[in-house]
Amino acid sequence: MSWHVLGAGSLGTLWAARLARAGLPVTLILRDEKRLADYRRAGGLSLVENGQRTLHPLPAETLADTAPIHRLLLACKAYDAASAVAALAPRLAPKAELLLLQNGIGSQEEVAAQAPHARCILVSSTEGAFRRADFEVVFAGHGFNWLGDPLDPTPPGWLAQLEQAGIPRQWTPDILTRLWRKLALNCAINPLTVLHDCRNGGLAEHPAEVAILCAELGELLEGCGQPAAAEHLHDDVQRVIQATAANHSSMHQDVAAGRRTEVAYLLGRACAVAERHALDLPHLRALHQRLLAHLAARGLPVH
Ligand code: NAD
Ligand code: KPL
Question: What class of enzyme is it (predicted)?
Fold first, then answer.
């Protein structure tokens, strides 16, 4: 059974190239005929690892193709996920499986609403990749992938294929804890790096701001039924700030490049959930307002 991968961006390329080089059948899904023609001109996907570039000439098709899809890796941004799946809904086989690679919380429910008969498998990834050119991706940071299905703890039979492809992974019944924990880390670090215009390590100069955000994020996680995601959050945030001190956060990179951010699925979601649970988290709310004003002032979407 073929893997379909939607999105020839950073993570889509990283996954598709590794699956393909393990001899597994992979088909890329691109937006339209123009993008397909560009892909064919490029000769395939290029993956750069340890300075070595390899070319992977995978078969590709457009959203408008009609072949049925049994297993789809959805590798687009959170704000594109639901519309991408809506476009593919007529092609989903009755027991289709969707692997959702999106950061943050919220896009997963939006996708499930577009494909109510498909099994949605949520992925939380700490791997790092970025696009150096069109259809050329650099594997920048080794990490890990947690997979799980909050509605069904049974692991899928194809997990061994990920191992075969060298994709580090673990099936977990606690995928929501993983996603909320990552959301909290992203909320404590990313917006501040944008507002202070600094690398992650620059936040070591703002310890009080980081500490109060971690305390409020902890309250949020406790209050919304994710207490395990709150454990030792501040320590973990400080560890990540140190371990990634030289890096720019993904949100900082997006803003610097004039790209839309995933704020609605990160800090926006955190504030919406706090409001729904009647939690008063003034520093988190103020951070969200400052961030939205910062994005608006640069002509970037605030959702
Ligand atoms: P990306 O922007 O590099 O790639 C997304 C790709 O999806 C783009 O090529 C875009 O054109 C394509 N796309 C969007 N809508 C489409 C559609 N309807 N049809 C066909 N193609 C479509 O994004 P990314 O960095 O790979 O991130 C994907 C998700 O993974 C995000 O939620 C991100 O936060 C998360 N993530 C990324 C990294 C990373 O290192 N890049 C790490 C962890 C998590
Ligand atoms: O995931 C990250 C990001 O930049 O998006 C880290 C490195 C954890 C910072 O929040």
Answer: oxidoreductase
